Amino acid sequence: MSEAGLNRLEDVLKLARACGADAADAVYGDGRSLSLAVRKGRLEKLERAEGAEIGLRVFLGRRAALVSTSDFSAASLKELAERAVAMARVMPEDPFAGLASPEQLMRGALPECDLCDPAEATEDELIAAAHAAEDAALAVAGVSNSEGAEASVSRSEIALAATNGFSHGYCSSHAALAVSVLAGGADGMERDYDSAVAVYRADLPAPESLGRAAGERAVARLGAKKAASATLPVVFDPRVSRSLLSHFLGAVNGASVARGTSFLADAMGGMVFAPGVSIVEDPHRVRGLRSRPCDAEGLPTARRALIDGGRLTSWLLDLRAARQLGLAPTGHAARGIGSAPSPSAANVALLPGTLSPAAMIGGISRGLYVTELIGSGVNGVTGDYSRGAAGFLIENGEKTRPVNEVTIAGNLREMFARLVPADDWVYRYGMDAPTVCIDGMTLAGA
Question: Mind listing the domains of the chain with CATH numbers?
Fold first, then answer.
């Protein structure tokens, strides 16, 4: 992280104090990106972007206001501070607003998470990767058309400083590759895709393997039909099982708990999953896609089991949510340049079980293997769950014909209690789960 960003933040904080702010914090982001898309062998999109912004949050007692700018001239920054303080004067009081106390702050050097790739990809390298992925997908027998392949890289510097004494920054990078193709023809057509993202571009899978997987998935879906309505076990492919983690994290978000809008609001310390299930967060994972050496309020982050042997152990708390609930903050604050902090998790893993996916499927006489979920019919207050799905029927322990245009439904609290993880967990997106099976779900189909 360059000193320029931190120095600029210190100047902005001095301006805020000079304008009458009791306290303030400021966040700086400086990023650049390159993205492109190819289709049928031709370059269709090439975009470069770069820019820097500062977000300033000021406090007058328990009143707070936040403003941002991309103009770093002396006059603009002075106006930024004046505008923020003027806005704070007319805001209603928030009894839970305020910076961290000095004893709560991260001390010493930030943990080294290796979040910035020193190598920078060229346009030609990204174009070649996108072409290779698309060519491999189109080479799969049965693939008839392409929706294209995309490749991108980005790099950013992030810094946070506050009048409570916190001042730190770090760099991060991301690289991504994706391809989507169609299979079939006049008698029916199916679409599928594959994608990958990594901190270091060298950690992405080979474009050819990614493209081949996309093509094979599309071809496997040909001939899909509805399945008969039933109550049965549903097996979630790792591509979609991670969405269950997202619903869980939403339910343990301290802001939702404080508002009373979480179906797990009364579950702290209780059994939410089966005794063998654990969910672990690791914000210091080396080259982790969601790693963060500290949170967005300057608090330390740490590895923790959110679910330990089925039992709920922690909410995700930023300072405001912690104060509302009368608890200690957990270092889960995240924020954008122009937004206030809110609770968010880092790298989260539903830990693997002991069964292989084959053994899990082999024990099911009739079920559904889900590879795609459609829509967002999840009620965070009640836990009611209903989503469109596609995948494959399971019959006598084997995946058989492809299925589409069905709906699976249940209640997340009951689903979590019946969830069984397989042993195929792989770190891929920063929020990852293995294949999982949930018995007793409702399938609405033909």
Answer: 3-218 (3.30.2290.10), 224-446 (no CATH)
